[in-house]
Amino acid sequence: MMITMPARVAAAAAAVSQKPDAGGASVPRRIAFTTPLTYAARIARTIELRGWEPYHCPTISVGPTPRTHSALEPYLLPPDPILRLFSAVAFTSRNGIAAFADSLRPGFPPLPPSSGEVFTVSALGNDAELLDDAFLFGLCPDPSRLEVLVPPVATPAGLVQYLGPGSGRKILCPVPLVVALEEPPVVPDFLDGLMRNGWDPVRVPAYETSWAGPESAEALLEVAEILDAVVFTSSAEVEGLLKGLKELGFCEWEKLRQRWPELVVAAHGPVTAAGAARLGVVVDVVSRRFGSFEGVMEVLERTWGKSE
């Protein structure tokens, strides 16, 4: 019987979303991911939409603390918010935007209306969804003073390029304070890029990134069945997992991979892939479309589609 094109496409999709178990029955592919809770619902949804089974093993904890609140508030709160001396703010993560918004005081926008130059607010990819009207109004009641920039290439380097020459202007950078982990080079490289482009970047710790503890590695090791893929979205997640595995006696990453010989290690973008390699974790596939998590799921689909 000749298979029509729609049926062939449907059969290919089923092959990618499911695989036979030891008894020959079709079971959904299981995808582990190590993101903090901030991104968990979004990435789980992209996995479920493909008929796969998400398995969340957060290896880092991310969020504001009293220490970071104290660091950020002088830039935003009365009587004289320091932000008024700046020309721009650059967010490199969703967590930075959320922490910044949480520190704004209702009824007291730190930027006065119709005073001085246009103020630039910049963010990466889908993180810019948080730069909604409520956020912008809380920053300045005059929308004509604000310019929102979202670079077409959703990387810190792409943001530096899209911002253009700084001409000595100040730019606030709400970034993480990394605790009990090695700071990845992403933020230092971003700040260095801004300086080389003529900006005067000021780093402020807006939230903390810390190790989630050995529980995340324990959760991964509890997967008795086949694990088809693990997705990393930052090098801090990789380090957090390795740190947990080491405490549990898995001193080498390859020792873990032996549990699941067909495991596909996926990285959300080249920055994450480079960080993983620096930590000794070989990445099999890298998303080149990293404005959203769809890109890394698409590369997994292509990988399994070729192998079927």
From TrEMBL:
Biological process, per Gene Ontology: tetrapyrrole biosynthetic process
Record InterPro entries: 4pyrrol_syn_uPrphyn_synt_sf, 4pyrrol_synth_uPrphyn_synth
Residue stretches making up the Tetrapyrrole biosynthesis uroporphyrinogen III synthase domain: 42-290
Superkingdom classification of source: Eukaryota
Cited Gene3D superfamilies: 3.40.50.10090
GO molecular function, one term: uroporphyrinogen-III synthase activity
Protein name: Tetrapyrrole biosynthesis uroporphyrinogen III synthase domain-containing protein
